Every structure is written in structure tokens, then in C-alpha cells.
Amino acid sequence: MRLTTAQALVAWLIAQRSRTVDDREAPLFPAVFAIFGHGNVLGLGTALHERRAEIPVWRGHTEQGMALAAVGLAKAAQRRQVGVATSSIGPGALNMVTAAGVAHANRLPLLLLPGDTFTGRAPDPVLQQVEHFGDATVTVNDAFRAVSRYFDRITKPEQLLATLPQVARVLTDPADCGPVTLALPQDVQAETYEFPEEFFAPHVHHIPRPRPDLRALHAAAAALRGSHRPLLVLGGGVRYSGAGEQAVDFAERHGIPIAETTAGRTLVRHDHRLHVGPLGITGSESANLLAAEADLVLAVGTRLQDFTTASWTVFAPDVGMVTVNTARFDAVKHGALPLVGDAAATLAELAAPLANWRVDAAWSAKAAALRGAWDAHIDTLRAPGAGLPSYAQIVGAVNDLSGPGDYVMTASGGLPGELIGGWRASGGAPTMDVEYGFSCMGYELAGAWGAAMAHTGGLVTTLLGDGSYLMLNSELFSAAFAGHPLVAVVCDNDGYAVIARLQQGQGGAPFNNFYADCRTTLSDPPRVDFAAHARALGCAVFTAGAAAEFRTAYAEARAVAISESRPVVVVVRTQPSAWTEAGAWWEVGVPIHMSGRDQYVAAKPGQLRYLRK
């Protein structure tokens, strides 16, 4: 088949299929997000137009936003489907680097197809080309190398025959999963080659389930049998393995209390008798207290990053660690006994060597007791009060009005702590996306657009602050134009409140976070009319100034989003200094002396406070 490079690439994308978590066959690449420019409009753009009935192409409005939408799609599809984003060379390409970082940090599949400069070099320097005086082979697309699991520059059409199988491997490999970047020079996109027909035959990708080494498996079983106070920690790997119910069954069989990480949230019913709550800084005091007493942690499918481990202060210093992970890189961290394997397969194979072993009933019961106290604390935070609503009250209302199939999202700022620590899940299915691996402001709206494409079993609600809204809001119009329903709750607290909290909580002076502490030449600086702005982007809009008003507005917003199939924005003024605290410590770089403000440090178990004299 004589095809251009671009035609061959598109034909291959269409031929790739995937098995979803519920064992349906679906396109591996269900959507292409595109902003065309001179580096991709004729080559790849023409090829996509020719096959537009077979692979949907959606117009984004910022390259970063559309690539983040592709990331949100992949997360909502449990890594069984992959979003594709293409741009021209230059600023369009570089705008996607941030999204690649998000996918890389969170181990999510993403295919990026930035245009590139001419390999023939005859017209150099072309528009948007950055010339390197000492290396003519370098282009701006080399910036993707640091945030790609796999990178290639296609300089001849026939390279696709060797490269594309590697692309599929990375995007569907549970251990290597992450972003792939194929730089596509403008002239090469239009060059032709005689491709073999069988290269474009439909191919169904089955996500592999690697099994652990038998010696390691028996060593892990011996460690569990020798423990008295084990804790099971469920991470994102359990989600992507589809092993949520299996992990709960494992815990029930042996009486092991369960905690969740950020990526593992909503896998366990919140009131399950063994569920102690989410772990870490943005988690729950209940899980953190139990973790401090645990003598062994079985961590399944998690990187155990600093927010989960409270910078490694949440566990006892002599705690034993057994990790289950498809990536050996993650499994061997912190001197753990590693079980390199799929979560579902490994938990199944642990059954035989553990046989009838069970934890002491008193330790099992402690999970429910501690979580009950945490639930009572959250009830207090959610209770109606005078004045502006808190984040906890906002999250509580969204939680109460959402159904078991609905999907909730956030990313940066203070809302992750409220959503992770306070959300009460019905369990069984992953219905939360908190992007706290890269903590990318702006993901909340763009990612929600992609999630709305993939999560069709319920309504997507995304929660964000005014800072994130101002940083990246253009994909609201993309979702409105495309006709994808979602609800965006914009919490306006007049600045970067959570960073102000960190700044002032560690002894720093209020500076450059709240608008009141930012430099301006005006005595009466302007404020953003978020409602008018969102309305101008094609969204229906509701506003609220109190907790009860918000509950009514959110209920109405849900109805409009579903009936009119478009995004709805709820703007609500919120308290700037009310937070859900999990009683954990976080390692940050605090100067000994901060601008002459005397400090002293008082250390307590599990936390470190910086106070004025």
C-alpha cells in the first residue's frame, strides 16, 4: 500500500484495538485532539480528514489544554484507551510539554505527535524553528525527551514499521506506561512508502498481567505471617489492574485493615469495616494513626510518594515493607521486599501460601473505630454554618448529590486534601481523579473534558480554585462546542490560598499569593467576573454565596448539564482559610531565618510546627 507517512500513521492508529476493564473491545485511540499549523495541517491534517469517519478529531484551543484532555481521557478509561494530541512545530509543540509531564508523573498513556522542522533543511530557518548553533539535529521537540517514556523522530516513512510496535508496547505496558512522543518533520509527513498491508490489520491489545517471582512471593507471605499489625495500602496500580474488589476480598479473608492512596481512592466503600481511610498529608487522621502502629505495610500498586507517606514520617521507623508493583523501579524503593507483578495476579497467588492465616481481630476492628472518629470529624466540618462555605462543605454537597456512577476530579491547591480526605465512596469502581502526582494547575478543566468523553456511565464534576480557572480555562469552550456535559465548581477564595497557607503556616510573611498581598499600582484593582466569563465560553452558569445556595445551584447545574449536554459552571465564594487537616507532616525547605522573623521549631510525633517566639 503506497501511503504517505501521515496516512500510514493514521491507518495504524485506527487498526489498534483494546480490551477495556469490563472486557469490551474498543478503539485503543478513541480520540485525536488537534490544533493545526503549518507543521501538521497538510501532512497529518490531510490524513486525518481522509479517515475522519473512523477516528474522531476534536479541536482544542490550547495545545496544553487538549493534551491534558487526552490525559484525563486515559485516566477515566483506566489506561485501556489513549488520547492523541497533535500540534505544529515551535510554541504549539512546547505547549504540550507540561501535559507530557503530567502523564509521565502519573504513569498515564499519552501519544503526542508534534510537527517538526524539515529534514531536508533546504528552507531553513523555517517559521518557528529554533536554531542551535552547535547541533543542527536539535529542535524544540527534544524538550520532550525528559518527559517521554519513548521518543522518536521519524525521518523516513519506513521507520514507522519499527517504531509503531514500540509505541504500542509502551502505551499498553503496565510497567512502562507513560507518554510517547513521535516528532514528525513536515516534509517526511508527506513522503510515501510501500507499506505491507498486514501492518494495518486490526490488532487487539491485551494488557499483560505479569506474575511475581515465586521465591519473592513466599518471602512476602512469610513476612505477612510474621506480622501482628499489617496494613494494606491500595494505589493506582490496583485501579488499573481492575483489582479493587479482589483487594477488598483479600483484606476480608485475612482481616487486614485497608488504606488508600490518592490514585487508589474510591476503590473501597468508605464505611467498610476494614477501611481506615486515605493515607498521608491529604488523607485522614484515622489512616495515619493506624499506619504509625503498623509493623508491616503491604503496598499494592503505589509509588509511595511524599504526600502518601507524609515524607516518610507516617510509618514507624522499623516498619516492614512489602510492595506489589508491575514496575521494578517502584517496587524496590525504600528497601522494600519487592513483588514485581500485576496487582490482581499477585494477590491471587498470595492466597495459597497465606492459606488460613488471619490477623488478630482487635487489630482489624481498630480500623472501623478510627475511621468512625474521622467520619464524625468530617461531619462537623460539613455542617452548615454562617458566612462563606468552606471547601469541606462544598465537597460534602457534591458528594451527597452525586450518584455511584458519577466521576469527580480535581488537581492542585487545597481541594485535593478536601476531596481525598473527605469524600465518601460507594466502592467497587474508580470514580475519582485527583491529579496530585504533578499537581498541575489547569488540569481540572481540560482533564474533565477528556474524562467526559471516556466516562459515559455518569456525570463528571470537576472542582477547582480561581487560580486554576485563570491559568487554563479555554477547554471549557472546547467542551461546550463539542457538546460534552460536565459540571465545573469554581471556588473563588481571592488568590492562591493553599500556598498562602504553606507560606504563613511555616512562618513566612503574607506575600504574592492572596490578591490583597500582591503588587498593584491601583487603589481599587479589578476582580474577575467568573460567571460572565464562563457564560461567554458557552457554559450555563449558576452562582452561590452560601452553603445552602451552593447545594441548590449544584443540583440545578447537574440537571442542565445532562439535559443540554454541555458544561455548566457553578461559581461560589469560599472561605480562604478553612481546611481539613489529616495530622501529618510534610518535608519542605524552610529557611532557618526568614526575613528577620524569629522562629523556633517544636517537634511533636508525626508533625513539625514552626511558631513565632
TrEMBL record:
NCBIfam families: myo_inos_iolD (TIGR04377)
Name of the protein this chain belongs to: acetolactate synthase
Gene name, Swiss-Prot/TrEMBL: iolD
All copies of domain Thiamine pyrophosphate enzyme N-terminal TPP-binding, residue ranges: 40-128
One biological process term in Gene Ontology: L-valine biosynthetic process
UniProtKB keywords: Amino-acid biosynthesis, Branched-chain amino acid biosynthesis, FAD, Flavoprotein, Hydrolase, Thiamine pyrophosphate
Taxonomic classification: Bacteria, Bacillati, Actinomycetota, Actinomycetes, Mycobacteriales
EC number: 2.2.1.6
All copies of domain Thiamine pyrophosphate enzyme TPP-binding, residue ranges: 435-572
A GO cellular component annotation in the UniProt record: acetolactate synthase complex
